[in-house]
């Protein structure tokens, strides 16, 4: 098993004819992901890296039976792209796009109510279940199938963690990038729950950062429910308060949202918190 | 993006909210004209984009022209948390009987918009949250943009004591929501919301934060930006699509990705150095970005060494390497450069740099140790 994605995931790419959409379609296809179609309104009938392009998600879904959509469209069209997926009955939407207005995501949340839909992102690197399926922008080759589940609010910092695991011959079950925005579709707790139910996942790494209170909520959950070994890293110990550090959500607005506060609460919940990502593999070597 | 009280007040007024009479002044004669028009006493409110201006002595009531002239001059000389007071909002003084706190904001943890009210207004809401959390009432929109009548009474009745005030409060919240959604705010706050001796209500203060991600929908907001509050280097970085924050240390950092950029600063610190900045070159692979990043960092004369830490995903390491070469040709580097490259096209990148005699590191730890040593 793995979480969120597996070898049966059939993916359509929204914004496939754009620069990023096209580049990453190629990368995903090369990795072995079943990219069954792409969507760009007005460009139906074309092909991108051998993938057929459709005018709408509904049409693409009808022709391909896709169950996953990945979004690379510009920020101003992201809300419409997500709503189109929801209308067409896509169950899993992974939104890579950065800079989506916060109120747009609030609106999306309200449309999703009561429907069995999962959104990952926006402003995220995507999800990979190594060896099975990669949906997003992460470099596939640094991953390797194995027992560790990785969940993170960051992109390249996740690669750093994964790279260190792989270098030490420790593979990953699935790696989930939650995204750096204040309103995101999937949060630490959702993924931790999935990792707990997933037999293939024997240990968990969570990578958090300053801002918000997701790590605090995750800590409460971990204390009660997480029985697998879990290691944490929190970025932003040297970040000044009140300054937005790249990610829209990465800003210290209260005492609770500092890196130190998050490290402490995670430690007290049984998470082994490291100072430098390259310390993570040794911890698992002792525990697995 | 933060805007000044007088600008936010204008938005409130446009939405039909009751605000005290007043205008902004930079010179004392303007303030006198405004005060005489609305009638003494008036309140002089320093316009700064930082909190705690009341405690810093930035808000004063004056009863007559002579007093105004004296106090205005004093306020104009005031520096609040490093920011000199340049504009003063002159507003009619209210006969305050009771103060409330009202706000609409994004609650990220709950993926919702929340309305917040407290009968303990006029003080910082963070203080109330600490000392008397039960005084803070919340109403979640639950995805709607309207108030749900079935739940609304339960909220508003807890905040206001009389039927009249509940009616006024409801009207104000409806207008505040209108302002919030129309302008893509991340916060719209009234503190205090004042009830005066005649039971009339006023939004006696206005605070609005705008969602940076939504600014593309509101070109008109660009003129509201107060450049004094923007570090010129940070502004230039933004123009060049780099994300930059200046810090106090001497190790310059150029990194791809916000999380890795923060982690790099943290590890520089742990290894005995002090980071000079946060800098995220972003996800794309334009070699020009490295040059721009180096130029901005080198303006900081404290910088003794620079670390380039790249984990290639979307960013291709060879593009970064070409950017480094190009930068070295175009500008003189007065400080040593330490390069760490891993990920997409790492091998090609290392070959490009090796030809020019630049050695690279594969791990973050080794690179950080090296740059910290060089900065000493």
**Approximately how much helix is present in the residues of chain B?**
25-40%
Q: Structural class of the secondary elements of chain A? A: alpha/beta
How much of the sequence lies in strands of chain B comes to: 25-35%
CATH level 3 topology of the largest domain in chain A? Rossmann fold
Estimated radius of gyration of chain A? 18 Å
Reported for the largest beta sheet of chain A, the result is: 7 strands, mixed
Distance between the termini of chain B: 37 Å
- Give the percentage of residues in beta strands of chain A: 15-25%
Our Rg estimate of chain B from Cα atoms comes to 26 Å
Overall tally of structural domains of chain A: 2
Number of helices of chain A: 9
Give a count of the beta strands of chain B, DSSP E runs of length 2 or more: 18
Describe this structure in words.
- The complex is a heterodimer of chains A (288) and B (376).
- Chain A is of the alpha/beta class.
- Chain A has two domains: 10-120, Rossmann fold; 138-287, Succinyl-CoA synthetase domains (Rossmann fold), CATH 3.40.50.
- Chain A has helices at residues 19-31, 57-64, 75-88, 102-112, 156-167, 188-197, 214-225, 259-268, 280-287; strands at residues 10-14, 34-39, 47-48, 51-54, 68-71, 92-95, 118-120, 126-129, 133-136, 145-152, 172-177, 203-209, 230-235, 272-273.
- In chain A, the strands form two sheets. Chain A has a seven-stranded mixed sheet with strand order 3-4-2-1-5-6-7, with helices on both faces. In chain A, strands 9-8-11-10-12-13-14 form a seven-stranded mixed sheet, sandwiched between helices.
- Chain A is globular.
- By secondary structure, chain B is α+β, with helices and mostly antiparallel strands.
- In chain B, the strands form five sheets. In chain B, strands 7, 8, 9, 10, 11 and 12 form a six-stranded antiparallel sheet that branches. A four-stranded antiparallel sheet of chain B has the order 1-6-2-3, with helices on one face.
- The mean pLDDT of chain B is 93.
- In chain B, 38% of the residues lie in helices and 25% in strands.
- Chain B has three domains: 1-20 and 96-229, D-amino Acid Aminotransferase, Chain A, domain 1 (2-Layer Sandwich); 21-93, 2-Layer Sandwich (Dna Ligase, domain 1), CATH 3.30.1490; 230-375, 3-Layer(aba) Sandwich (Rossmann fold), CATH 3.40.50.
- At the A-B interface, helix 1, helix 4 and helix 5 of A face helix 8 of B.
């Amino acid at each position: 098993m793995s979480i969120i994605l597996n070898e049966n995931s059939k993916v359509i790419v929204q914004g496939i004819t754009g620069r990023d959409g096209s580049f990453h379609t190629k990368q995903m296809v090369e990795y072995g992901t079943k990219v069954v179609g792409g969507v760009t309104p007005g460009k139906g009938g074309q092909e991108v890296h051998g993938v057929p392009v459709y005018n709408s998600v509904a049409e693409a879904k009808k022709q391909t039976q896709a169950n996953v959509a990945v979004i690379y469209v510009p920020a101003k069209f992201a809300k419409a792209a997500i709503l189109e997926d929801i209308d067409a009955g896509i169950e899993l939407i992974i939104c890579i796009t950065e800079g989506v207005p916060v109120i747009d995501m609030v609106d999306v949340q309200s449309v999703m109510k009561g429907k069995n839909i999962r959104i990952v992102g926006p402003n995220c690197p995507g999800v990979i279940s190594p060896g099975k399926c990669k949906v997003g922008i992460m470099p596939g080759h640094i991953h390797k199938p194995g027992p560790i589940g990785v969940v993170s609010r960051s992109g390249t910092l996740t690669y750093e963690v994964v790279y260190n695991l792989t270098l030490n011959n420790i593979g990953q079950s699935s790696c989930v990038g939650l995204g750096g925005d204040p309103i995101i579709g999937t949060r630490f707790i959702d993924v931790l729950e999935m990792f707990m139910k997933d037999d293939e996942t024997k240990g968990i790494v969570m990578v958090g950062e300053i801002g918000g209170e997701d790590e605090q909520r995750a800590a409460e959950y971990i204390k009660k429910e997480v029985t697998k070994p879990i290691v944490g890293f929190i970025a932003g110990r040297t970040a000044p308060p009140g300054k937005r550090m790249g990610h829209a959500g990465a800003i210290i607005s209260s005492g609770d949202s500092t890196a130190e506060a998050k490290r402490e609460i995670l430690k007290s919940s049984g998470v082994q918190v490291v100072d430098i990502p390259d310390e993570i593999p040794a911890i698992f070597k002792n525990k697995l | 993006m933060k805007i000044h009280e007088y600008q936010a007040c204008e938005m409130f007024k446009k939405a039909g909210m009751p605000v005290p009479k007043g205008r902004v002044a930079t010179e004392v004669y303007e303030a006198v004209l405004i005060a005489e028009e609305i009638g003494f006493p008036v309140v002089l409110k320093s316009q700064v984009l930082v909190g705690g201006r009341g405690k810093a002595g930035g808000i004063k009531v004056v009863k007559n022209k002579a007093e105004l002239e004296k106090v205005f001059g004093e306020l104009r000389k005031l520096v609040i948390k490093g920011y000199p007071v340049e504009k003063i909002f002159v507003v009619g003084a209210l006969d305050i009987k009771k103060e409330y706190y009202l706000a609409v904001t994004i609650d990220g943890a709950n993926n919702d918009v929340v309305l917040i009210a407290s009968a303990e207004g006029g003080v910082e809401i963070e203080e109330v949250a600490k000392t008397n959390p039960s005084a803070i009432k919340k109403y979640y929109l639950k995805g709607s943009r309207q108030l749900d009548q079935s739940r609304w009474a339960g909220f508003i009745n807890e905040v206001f004591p009389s039927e009249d005030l509940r009616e006024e409060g409801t009207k104000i919240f409806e207008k505040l929501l209108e302002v919030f959604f129309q302008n893509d705010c991340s916060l719209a706050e009234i503190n205090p919301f004042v009830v005066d001796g005649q039971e009339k209500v006023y939004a006696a203060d206005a605070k609005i934060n705008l969602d940076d991600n939504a600014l593309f929908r509101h070109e008109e907001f660009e003129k509201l930006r107060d450049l004094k509050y923007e570090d010129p280097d940070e502004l230039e970085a933004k123009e060049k699509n780099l994300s930059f924050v200046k810090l106090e240390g001497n190790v310059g950092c150029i990194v791809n990705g916000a999380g890795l950029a923060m982690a790099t600063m943290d590890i520089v610190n742990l290894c005995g150095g002090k980071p000079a900045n946060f800098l995220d070159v972003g996800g794309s692979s334009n070699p020009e970005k490295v040059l721009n990043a180096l130029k901005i960092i080198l303006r900081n004369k404290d910088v003794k060494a620079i670390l380039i830490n790249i984990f290639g995903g979307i960013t291709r390491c060879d593009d970064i390497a070409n950017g480094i070469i190009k930068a070295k040709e175009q500008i003189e580097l007065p400080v040593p450069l330490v390069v760490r490259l891993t990920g997409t096209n790492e091998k090609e990148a290392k070959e490009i740099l090796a030809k020019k005699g630049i050695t690279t590191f594969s791990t973050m730890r080794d690179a950080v140790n090296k740059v910290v040593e060089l900065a000493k």
